[in-house]
Amino acid sequence: MNSPAIARPSSLRGWLRSTQLTALASLLVVTAVAQSTNTPIAPTAADTAWRELQGAFQQPPIPSEWKGKQPTPEQRDAYLAEQGRLAVIAADKAKAFIAQYPNSDKLAEAKRQYARMLQTAVALGNKDRATELEALQAERLKDPNTPEQERFNIRAQALIKEMQAGMKEGDDQLAAYEKVARQLLKEFPKQSEPYQMLLSIAGSADEKHAQVLLKEIAAADIPEELKEQAKALAARYERVGQPLEIKFKATNDQEVDLQNMKGKVVLVDFWATWCGPCVKEIPNVRATYEKLHAKGFEIVGISFDSDRKKLDDFVEKEKMPWVQYFDGKGWGNEIGKKYGINSIPAMWLIDKKGMLRELNARADLEKKVEKLLAEK
User: Domain-by-domain residue ranges, the chain?
Assistant: First the structure.
């Protein structure tokens, strides 16, 4: 079963936000002024407790040693463990505030933060709070004052969890994920997130089904940014059957030009050493290369890394003999930008005539390569 692709993060802080570690909290300062006397109103006990509670919702500062580079797995694990510990503390403080000040005008926000912090705590390993979280989420769904976005998030997490629990080896993961998206679209027709899910599916589906999904997205009442992403993906599918122009000097100083590789079947692998799903695919890619290289199969790696030494060391360690493109620009990778790559891994297959034939080569890679090698 393929792992989902890694979508492009905008920054390190964006990466942290994508793990849902940041609690949304507004610093509310009581500065009410009496209309008749202009004398400041003394804060109540609830006001004081609320201000103190805000500190518990604050995200710890990003370690200075992370700036400008990816954290090590050990650094990341330590940071996430600390986030989990602080989330438990924040959840308990919010719960205590709710019980102590049921008439506070901050009650609704306190309930949202309690749910958010408890969810973060469970996601980061505090499984002993899972039952409490389930009960709270059920209560939040029944509460008519719960914002729709929070309601959507609760249902999405529940449906995905249910999907994952029911998945078996060999099941169609894309079909199951689309079923979740369809259910969410039915329950929340005004939300754009289900269409974002459909767009993600279109990026990994076969061309025919992808085109159907992209037309549906284009016709939906959703933000223009999402429609533009759908148009960009549709344009990518339009490249199928066309020559692919990629030319560069590889990390081993070899001059690479796809148009000079006619007669070969070429896998263009957009990847990075820091991309978990990319690394997970390497054994399968390497096995296919070792089996079919002598029959005319080549691989061209397009690395989204920013650290050349890390890339070189990784390639040597993993015994990856094929050429690698590296420009050190990360998500600003020039070839990636040219072809609209916004998630990795992305694996494209080029036939012996130099034409792009497959945008989703991850599934059944060996069979797809053998089929193209058998063509005249």
Answer: 6-146, 163-238, 247-373
